[in-house]
């Protein structure tokens, strides 16, 4: 079996921006990139990507510029042409080395990540096995999901939203971004309202939003102000590169500190483990390096005795991949479920993932176990 084509499809969902209201749900991505890897055996692999899709498209579809044996400037698709898609580890390194003069991190790594996921999807379909089984373990059949949504601007909006997610069957809710960070007193009022609505038996998670500039001492103050409301974790209190600041925060507070959605490569996550000393790693499979790197992150996390809860905020394609990573882990506690209402989040796959008893089932069909709806791709594709 050989790879015959690698392409990035750019999708746009129109008319999704609107002003916040007390009970408003997030609307999801306006633009999305889809990676499609085709083979001469008729097997196709898919992945979405949460990045600038036109930039990723250029990185994937750029021509081959380097001399043979000295690949370092090449488009990612050119590096994979004619290759065996089952050799995911070797192909990951070939893409990494072949793009190293314009890549190493950023959009090149995000494109590599999505292609890697698509290759794992092909492997599963070729062998007739779910991705987690090929990775080496299926420790569980389902994973508890948390609703991932935006902070509402009022306590009443927070109570309404929390009640809605409980009614939908969730046992954990994460509020993030929105108005959080504008007024410390209001932040506490909003978190208080969420805790009151969720009660003592359900988990509350907080994404503090790294776009808000904070010093480590300010981040510690935020964590301490929210501690009485028992957040399961507080996410992204600082800039993603502030490893030393994260260590100061993690060592100063009892509330678990989470970060990592912007991080990439096993080396970056080593920094989060050994230098930042955070409690929860949040690799986004479309940014960290794909499933090939995520498997290494899980092994490092197990040795360091920290949790891995993947970041997953795009479509059911990424959520399905994240479920496979959770199934591969010996100790998996939560999977993120993007509650956004937009069509690219909700309808990209023919059979959307559904909550049951507060959990999402790990797909058991070959590959990622979800099927892209070509009609939706055709409707929203712009490039």
Uncertain ranges: none
CATH superfamily of the largest domain: Enolase-like C-terminal domain
User: What class, by secondary structure content?
Assistant: alpha/beta
What is the N-to-C succession of helices and strands? EEEHHHHHEHEHEHEHEHEHEHEHEEH
- Count of individual beta strands: 13
Description:
- There is one protein chain.
- By secondary structure, the chain is of the alpha/beta class.
- The protein has 2 domains: 3-128, Enolase-like, domain 1 (2-Layer Sandwich), CATH 3.30.390; 134-373, TIM Barrel, CATH 3.20.20.
- It contains 14 helices and 13 strands.
- The protein is globular, with a radius of gyration of 20 Å.
- The model has no long low-confidence stretch (mean pLDDT 95).
Structure in a nutshell:
Helix content is 40%, strand content 16%. It is an alpha/beta fold and 383 residues long.
Note the topology.
Elements: E1 3-12, E2 31-39, E3 44-49, H1 53-61, H2 76-80, H3 88-98, H4 106-127, H5 131-135, E4 142-150, H6 155-167, E5 172-176, H7 184-198, E6 203-207, H8 216-226, E7 234-235, H9 243-252, E8 257-259, H10 265-276, E9 280-281, H11 290-304, E10 307-308, H12 316-328, E11 335-338, H13 343-346, E12 355-356, E13 359-361, H14 374-380
Parallel strand pairs: 4-5, 4-11, 5-6, 6-7, 7-8, 8-9, 9-10
Antiparallel strand pairs: 1-2, 2-3, 4-13, 12-13
Helix pairs in contact: 1-4, 3-4, 6-7, 8-9, 9-10, 10-11
